[in-house]
Amino acid sequence: MVSLKGVNKHFGPLHVLKDVDLEVDEGQVVVLIGPSGSGKSTLCRTVNRLEAVSSGTIRVDGQVLPQEGRELAALRAQVGMVFQSFNLFSHMTVLENVTLGPTRLKRISKAEAENQALTLLERVGVGQQAHKLPAQLSGGQQQRVAIARALAMDPKVMLFDEPTSALDPEMINEVLEVMIELAKEGMTMIVVTHEMGFARKAADRVVFMADGEIIEDQTPQGFFTNPTSERARDFLSKLITH
Amino acid sequence: MNIIFDNLDLWGLALWNTLVLFIGGAVIAVFLGTVLGVMRVSSVPAARAIGTAYVNLVRNTPLTLVFFIFVFGYPSLGLPRLDYTALAITAIGLYAATYVTEVLRSGFNTIPVGQAEAARALGMTFGQVMGHVVLPQAFRSVVPPLISALIAILKMTTIAAGFSVLELGAVRANLSERGENALGVLLWVALVFVLLVAIMSLAQRSLEKKWKIIR
Fold first, then answer.
1. pTM here?
2. C-alpha dihedral (A113, A119, A122, A124), degrees to nearest 10
3. CATH number of the domain located at residue range(s) B2-211 in this protein
């Protein structure tokens, strides 16, 4: 479903992605973990070309990512994205946030889009908040709205860029639960996260990155019990001591 | 009071012309200012360069000079003839657009980059991101300075008096010919402007209330 081949990315003198290859099959849940600055967020953002790569090819559902323009916009519509800082449109109600894409980009009638949006909001547990503004919601609720907004476009893949990193601890679970549900339903997902519990519970693969390279790529079971690389062992030991 | 009621014909015409200049100029300024503002944040280097050059060139020129160029320069270009009022509206609009652009640009800066990214990630083109997400919020956050720019446009209209357009700024000269006291006329002119600006301030207050964004 998603395929990266020989992907390099430079930020000025910084080489943040070094010859990265990654294949994600349909229905797979891949968790990207690694120390900060390892390039995992950048990798996630290259998949819908929010970051343009310096070299290499990226395919989504077989189609090579086009240049900036209408074609790229059409492809992005098939790739859902959830951000660390939620990024809801603050001048619109929750319901309008979710219906904007379907009505303006997919030309679905307003009534139909609202029905669909209310179902989605119900599913992520914020149906009661449909007519409020984003700022009136808690962080956890906002993030669940953001997930509903992405799902409303009926995406083939969902990208999660540290979706729980900006949340208070007691709100992390309500978001993770929605994501676990989504994984169970067979959504293809690429998730950048520090939530090892989520990786254990919902991931098919754990991809460990450091210094712009993929160091390990294996099952959660294998990664957490028997990491093969020194870097991964070091990383995990730091997590467990706290 | 006699200054008003003995010369109602002149006051009416002057007020009408002032409003025509103001509304025409404001419409051009807001429209062109928005286009230039969007150009200045677009990813196309040429568009950014043109936007920046326009603002720097036109904003740094005195309005009177812009009027001169239009009123005397335009007819010599051999293009379709326009009357003085139309030329004055164009001059005001092209000039004031630079202020709208800069006001709007500070509005763009109030919108978190993440929201534009989220809009792009949904599959919106640059134009859709601007139209649905960035511009509506930018305008809401710049209501006070935007109304100030509009008030400035209202006062710019008086310069047209020097270019054969009978508006409120030209009333004094005309009424002096009819033997009215110049200072008295000017005080009345000032009062009319104060009233017009008061109306705009009221509009500003209601817009600010209506468009309050909770962040």
1. 0.86
2. -80
3. 1.10.3720.10
